[in-house]
Specification:
The complex is a heterodimer of chains A (535) and B (261).
Chain A (H helix, E strand, L loop, with lengths): L1 H12 L12 E5 L6 H8 L11 H14 L6 E7 L4 E7 L3 E7 L3 H11 L9 H15 L3 E3 L5 E4 L5 E9 L2 E7 L8 E2 L3 E12 L8 E10 L4 E12 L5 E12 L3 H5 L8 E3 L7 E14 L3 E14 L16 E13 L8 H6 L17 E10 L9 E14 L3 E14 L7 E3 L13 E3 L1 E11 L8 E12 L9 E10 L6 E9 L10 E8 L3
Parallel strand pairs in A: 1-3, 4-7
Antiparallel strand pairs in A: 2-3, 5-7, 6-7, 8-10, 9-10, 10-11, 11-12, 12-13, 13-15, 14-27, 15-16, 16-17, 17-18, 18-19, 19-20, 20-23, 21-22, 23-24, 24-25, 25-26, 26-27
Chain B lengths: L1 H11 L8 H19 L2 E12 L5 E14 L2 E9 L2 E2 L2 H19 L12 H5 L2 E11 L2 E10 L9 H4 L2 E8 L4 E9 L3 E3 L5 E14 L5 E14 L3 E16 L12
Classes of the chains: A mainly beta (535), B alpha+beta (261).
């Protein structure tokens, strides 16, 4: 035992001391683009004139790891040190992409994935580029190609470049079920009462073109009227990047031409409740077939054929507000549509674009606040020659402007021009007064065959986020033709308060007063409280 | 035997003893404050992946956002410049610039802006009890490993409802005296509005730092994961990964001259 202890002591105490590490005289760094020399030196923590405290291989591995943390998953680093000259050479390969492998997909589906992801071989592979490519695939395939695993890819660095292996899976059918809304007639109205519904859609996915065949079924039950309203439809886009869409729907709807009134110039997605009445309703039972073409990303043209039976609907709730009867009969019409946006895409998503194809009211399609100018026009023709009981033509043009001014101000305007000819039935006639038109006048106080309307709102957002947005507004418009004679220019002004300032869930209180009340009518303030829900 | 013990103790003393955790971390706080002050002089880019997940962990939505970040009076201002690799449209850009101008304006005028917890490590350091548990090799350099746990009781700190439920590990480069990695997770459910508003059942994040010029260590990558229930009903699982890059100096001659880069 004593000898063992002596041996250990001797080994410890008499171990030869290591030679001091050689000092670094020169550092050469090759192949870096992502980081400059100073950044690399900061990461490897080696300076000229100082001893090389770590093995070159350790330095290289440390730098490679830093590259991976910084989002270069295929980076490789090698290092060599010449002790005699004190020269340290770092050779960095930031990892260029050699090929993309799509596990789980072949043929046309694979080609489409590669085209959608736009990951170019030869370029340095960055983690952020992989993320963006996968997000684009999610977006464009609309669920037909899904990723699998976490992360859904593997990077295999190699001498001649990196392989990116994507773990994908193809889906043949996509089911989407949700609540049906917001609908043109709302979740509550005086002819249905509370109306709740479901919407189901099955998309038969095409993983090579992303032109899925969509089968739609929507149904809602009106609790006061004890009726079921529904829509059954089929739709398919055609062509690369879906420039053309064809569709058909059979429906039995509680419908209105007044849905544009409820939203005004706050076109937030979701449900709306207004304390002021904002529409009249009728039943529309029949068919609609449509074809829409996207022109670039900013424009759309379409044509629809409609064949509907129109019937009146009685008030089913305890409301004391009547619902005007409509002239009943079959309306067959052709509707031409043109839409354009000057800033950004006409519709932000494919889903919102699809919603625009089947819009019951022809005044405006559901779309968020435009980035700049948004223009829409519809031209509707109903003729006995088409099998219609009605004979009229109707044009509606709408120009919507949103302009951010200074830091806390914004200008929102909308202008409508409506022209009609023949004998449009009651729902197809033009009315001014009430929400969305002349807010200082009563609901549909003025009617006529033609109209012009201009609404302007100026929003001021106070610096305190606890203060509401202050919105002075002006509405002006005129009607002419169709019997009662021209109204002349009628206008009002008012003030709105919106809180919270930027949330999509908000309350807005408007007070409007007529600037030229009708003779015999007292000037009075008309109030509306609007509550905006996210669904 | 005595001689053998002596020899072994001689071997052990070749490495320095582990420092006491709290005293060691208190020594780091001034450096952390210097780092936070230095952030005011820099602008940088952040690429962020946001993933929402379902109950089985499958990704239900994925968004990639690119930001330019700069500081005004110690407040970070994140300016969105691209989404999913696509630059913003003109309208989106204008809206974002308007939002950024407001935020700059708020910061210059001293109006309340919520602190960015991602980079405010010093606030975390002062809140916890630290214990040094060992050394690990990190990129070839020895790093002290410290475990931390929240001290009991409430503190007058913004977001203390979160901070008091967190624990984790810090990796401190011994040669530089800098935190190079932090791993943080929650030890108990975090309840907002008595759990009715939201209950965060899982929260974890990892921060990696890298050395840039001037000897500063700045965030390089942040990975965060959260699982919560909102309004007792809506489940929420999300993960974000942020990569910080292109640190560059950003000096302003006067407060009024500050403009988004």
């Amino acid at each position: 035992m004593t000898s063992l202890v002596s041996f250990v002591l001797a080994a410890v105490l008499q171990a030869p001391s290591e030679a001091p590490p050689p000092s670094v005289q020169e550092i050469e760094i090759r192949g870096t683009r992502a980081f400059d020399r100073e950044a690399v030196l900061g990461m490897i923590r080696v300076r000229t004139g100082e001893p090389l405290a770590r093995e070159p291989g350790v330095i290289a591995e440390g730098l490679a790891k830093r590259y991976r943390i910084a989002g270069y998953p295929a980076a490789r680093v090698s290092a060599s040190f010449d002790g005699s000259s004190g020269r340290l050479v770092l050779e960095v390969d930031e990892g260029r992409l050699r090929e993309v492998v799509t596990e789980g997909l072949e043929g046309a589906a694979r080609r489409r994935v590669l085209e959608t992801m736009r990951l170019e071989p030869g370029r340095v592979l960055r983690e952020g580029d992989i993320w963006s490519a996968i997000a684009r695939l999610d977006d464009e395939s609309e669920g037909a190609v899904r990723t699998a695993g976490d992360p859904p890819y593997a990077v295999e660095p190699g001498e001649d470049g990196a392989r990116l292996v994507l773990h994908l899976r193809r889906r043949t059918a996509l089911l989407d079920v949700g609540q049906w809304g917001p609908r043109p007639s709302g979740r509550y109205n005086r002819v249905d009462g509370v109306s709740l519904g479901v919407a189901a859609e099955v998309a038969l996915a095409d993983a090579s073109s992303y032109n899925h065949l969509r089968l739609r079924a929507r149904a809602a039950y009106g609790f006061s009227a004890k009726n079921v309203r529904y829509l059954l439809g089929v739709e398919r886009p055609l062509g690369h990047d879906q420039p053309l869409t064809l569709g058909y729907a059979y429906h039995d709807l509680t419908d209105t031409e007044d849905s544009f009134r409820r939203y005004g110039l706050e076109e937030e997605p979701g449900g709306v409740y207004n304390t002021r009445r904002s529409g009249d309703f009728f039943r529309r039972l029949g068919h609609e077939a449509y074809a829409f073409a996207r022109v670039g990303r900013k424009a759309q043209v379409g044509v629809s054929w409609r064949s509907d039976g129109y019937t009146s609907l009685p008030v089913a709730t305890g409301s004391d507000q009547p619902n005007p009867p409509v002239k009943e009969g079959r309306m067959r019409s052709i509707v031409g549509t043109v839409r354009f946006a000057s800033g950004g895409d006409l519709y932000p998503t494919r889903r919102s674009e699809r919603e625009s194809f089947l819009v019951p009211s022809l005044y405006a399609s559901p779309a968020p606040k435009p980035e700049r100018v948004r223009a829409e026009a519809t031209y509707e023709i109903a003729r006995p020659g088409l099998g219609s009981d009605f004979d009229f033509t109707r044009f509606i043009g709408r120009v919507r402007l949103h302009r951010a001014l200074l830091a806390r101000h914004a200008l929102d305007t909308v202008a409508y021009l409506g022209l009609s000819h023949g004998q449009p039935p009651f729902p197809k006639r033009f009315f001014l007064g009430g929400l969305g038109t002349l807010r200082g006048f009563d609901e549909k106080q003025f009617g006529g065959a033609n109209f012009v309307l201009a609404v302007a709102e100026w929003s001021f957002m106070p610096p305190s986020r606890f203060a509401p947005v202050v919105i002075p507004f002006y509405d002006g418009g005129a009607l002419w033709g169709g019997g009662p004679g021209a109204t002349g220019w009628k206008h009002d002004a008012g003030l709105g308060l919106r809180f919270p300032q930027t949330s999509r869930v908000f309350a807005r209180l408007d007070a409007a007063i007529s600037l030229d009340p009708e003779p015999g009518r007292a000037r009075r303030v008309l109030w509306n409280l609007r509550l905006q829900f996210p669904f | 035997m005595l001689a053998a013990a002596l020899a072994l103790s001689l071997l052990a003393t070749e490495r320095a003893p582990l420092p006491e955790g709290n005293a060691y971390v208190r020594g780091l706080v001034p450096k952390q404050k210097l780092r936070e002050e230095a952030l005011n002089r820099y602008t940088y880019d952040v690429e962020q992946l946001l993933e929402e997940r379902d109950d089985k962990g499958a990704v239900t939505s994925r968004k990639v956002r690119s930001y330019e970040v700069f500081y005004v009076k110690g407040r970070p201002v994140w300016k969105l410049v691209a989404e999913d690799g696509r630059p913003l449209t003109r309208g989106e850009r204008e809206a974002e610039e308007k939002r950024v101008r407001q935020q700059v304006d708020d910061a210059l005028k001293g109006r309340a802006v919520v602190d960015d917890p991602r980079l405010r490590l010093s606030a975390i350091l002062e809140r916890y009890d630290f214990q040094t548990v060992g050394r690990e090799d990190l990129d070839g350099w020895p790093a002290l490993v410290l475990e931390f746990r929240a001290r009991p009781g409430k503190r007058d700190l913004p977001g203390d409802v979160f901070l008091r439920s967190l624990a984790g590990r810090l990796f401190v480069d011994e040669a530089e005296g800098e935190v190079v990695r932090a791993e943080v997770k929650n030890t108990a459910a975090i309840k907002l509005a008595l759990g009715v508003g939201a209950a965060v059942s899982g929260l974890a994040f990892t921060l990696d730092f890298r050395k840039i010029e001037d000897g500063l260590w700045m965030p390089a990558r942040v990975e965060a994961e959260a699982e919560a229930r909102v309004l007792l009903l809506k489940g929420f699982r999300a993960r974000s990964t942020s990569i910080f890059s292109r640190y560059r100096r950003f000096e302003a001659a006067s407060e009024e001259a500050i403009q988004p880069p």
